[in-house]
Amino acid sequence: MELQLTADLERILRKLDKADLIDLLVKGISGSDLNSLLLKVFSEKTKASSPHDLLKRYRENRFVQPARIDVLLLKQLELDLLNIAANHSFSPIQLSPVAPLGCTSVIGSVDQNKVISALRGTEVVSDATNLLAMHISELIKSNPNQREDFIRFCTTHRHVRAQFFGDAPGMLPHFHLFCMVTSGVDQGSYSFEKQSFWEHIQVYRHIFKTLFGSEIEIIFSARDGYKDAAGLVSRIMKHGDELSMNVQVSTGEPNKGNQYYKGLQFTVKTVIDGQELHIGDGGFVDWTQQMLGSRKERLLISAIGLDRLIL
Q: Do the beta carbons of residue 307 and residue 176 sit within 8 Å?
């Protein structure tokens, strides 16, 4: 496949008089050799830096600045959320601050330029649900005969994303999310989808009712990836009525171009102190299907933003 170069890269390659440099680095050496080369480059670069240079980089780099948030409120909120989720059978887990290189772009169809790629085959975590899905896939792969009916994990994690939004409100270079992931196997009649979905909603309903005294609204949006996405949404909504969930629901516009979620995406909306917040979202994804090579695998992910709840 022919490499597509940006104007900046073309300028750099002309300056070095190495038009084929990127192609050589991508195809001509192994990943471990590339890592060794880059480690040496960065080692030499840092040797040429002074403490003044280091402080300048700190002041100019938006990714390394502290969060403008009350850290005690954040930590207490994290504990409250994890305890609530644990009481709903979601196992809390502490993830690594880094993920395997390509964690978001290979299975999640996210541009690699939207994350911070690192050395030693890693990238900074930009979506903890990707890493949770990878952990679940490894558990299933390592213990194929001990597969539980459902596997449920939750976590709170600081995320870093590389898109630049300027001064857009609520768009931060790094931020905390509370995430839940449920894994299972297709048993027919959308049984996994119906049960797992309303389990996630029960947790969010408990969170906002208990901690903020607010109700939630769920906005359903059909997506490609299921043979009958409209039927999937209808069956899940009907199951909520059967469970007497008493959660307000509405339907958003289908977005067939959205390739991230499969069949269904949902948005969590609430009102706190008179302010309407679209505070999180979730949906079904095919990541465990891809990693385990089985179309029977099912996975539901969801997350809410914590910085916005405190700010």
A: yes
Tell me the C-alpha to C-alpha distance, in Å, between residue 17 and each of 9, 11, 27, 41, 114.
12, 10, 19, 18, 28
CB 268 within 8 A of CB 305: no
Q: How many CB atoms are closer than 10 A to CB 245?
A: 16
Q: Which tens digits make up the pLDDT trace of 19-34?
A: 888 888 889 999 899 9
Q: Residue 291 is which amino acid?
A: M
* Residues contacting 105, CB < 8 A, separation 6+: 111, 112, 115
Asked if residue 177 lies in contact with residue 157, where contact means CB atoms within 8 angstroms, the answer is yes
Backbone torsions φ then ψ of 80, nearest 5 degrees: -60, -45
As annotated, the residues of the chain forming the CATH 3.30.930.10 domain(s) are: 71-310
The token duo for 95 is 């993830």
Residue found by looking up tokens 């979601």 in the block: 90
CA atoms within 13 A on the CB side of 54: 6
**pLDDT digit string, tens, across residues 123-154:** 999 999 999 999 999 999 998 887 778 999 99
**What is the CATH number that goes with domain 71-310?**
3.30.930.10
Q: What does the angle CA 160 – CA 163 – CA 167 come to, to the nearest 5 degrees?
A: 100
Report the amino acid identity of residue 189: S
pTM for this prediction: 0.90
Report the alpha-carbon distance of residue 124 to residue 177 in Å, rounded.
15
